[in-house]
Design goal:
2 strands; two-stranded antiparallel sheet
Length: about 110
């Protein structure tokens, strides 16, 4: 089975995202979070962008739900990748784990 790789894009048009349509607000939040990740020394990988899209598309109640949605887009995303990303997002203040993984951009 041949995998198709999605191109790495940091600045997506308002109507385009990896998993569907995102609001302008979600795209702005994504750009702020990507900036915070870069400032903290993280590489911006395709997997991280997919996970951000999944989290920003809707409210996920658990890492398992994030994993399930993200793995449909990219089969190489594992549960460890999801947990590491959630921990990183929590460390930079982008999400509140106690609040159903809602994004908090200040």
């Amino acid at each position: 089975m041949e995998r198709t790789h999605l191109p790495l894009k940091l600045h997506l048009p308002a109507s385009v995202t990896i998993g569907g349509c995102m609001s302008k607000e979600a795209i702005e939040q994504k750009e702020v979070i990507v900036g915070k990740l870069k400032d903290s020394g993280c590489r911006i990988t395709k997997q991280r962008l997919i996970l951000l899209d999944v989290i920003l598309e809707g409210e996920c109640g658990s890492c398992k739900e994030i994993y399930y949605r993200a793995s449909k887009i990219d089969h190489s995303i594992g549960t460890a990748t999801v947990y590491r990303m959630i921990n990183t997002l929590e460390a930079i203040g982008a999400i509140d784990r106690k609040n159903m993984y809602r994004v908090q951009v200040s």
